[in-house]
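Field: COMPLEX_INPUT
Field: COMPONENT_COUNT = two
Field: RESIDUE_TOTAL = 230
Field: MODE = joint
Values follow.
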Amino acid sequence: DTGVSQDPRHKITKRGQNVTFRCDPISEHNRLYWYRQTLGQGPEFLTYFQNEAQLEKSRLLSDRFSAERPKGSFSTLEIQRTEQGDSAMYLCASSYKTSPGQGLGTEAFFGQGTRLTVV
Amino acid sequence: GEDVEQSLFLSVREGDSSVINCTYTDSSSTYLYWYKQEPGAGLQLLTYIFSNMDMKQDQRLTVLLNKKDKHLSLRIADTQTGDSAIYFCAESTGTASKLTFGTGTRLQVTL
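Field: COMPLEX_OUTPUT
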């Protein structure tokens, strides 16, 4: 297993188009997270899944955004009717269920991200 | 809500020590982390500290935590040009489903 992989690495799209990103987590990890990172800012939490269930969504995730993890393995993040403000790096991370006494950050591994540019 | 703040930029000379600071507001933070992000790369966990600790040392890295003031720092000894990157502090609670990141500090190492 080579870690968390994201596809594509870069995406340029015209405003108003729909885009979809894919994340393949580490195979035994049952938790999967999406973050968004805009230029000059730290990553911001968007949503997370435990297996196929989407358990938490940030208010940043507007109704144009939808995430799925249909079989509890890979996940997709779709943005409909893209706007220039959607331009950002979209990061995926995965973890196994956090063990007692262990912090989430010690067990979550990040992918390299998908950089979206909306023109 | 949670808020994590960092200074934006730090420049040091190669061989000197770097100290990157972070303040946070969530008193229930249980774990605090330092991540490194190089251009075009994902986030790499450098080190972390549990909230009941004051200090943690890991090779060239020293983390200091002042829980009373909600202040976290990362000291890099003998800073090298390869340490040039953006450094993020982050926090989570014990049962957290998410990490809350700071705004990042860009470390520039000059010769």
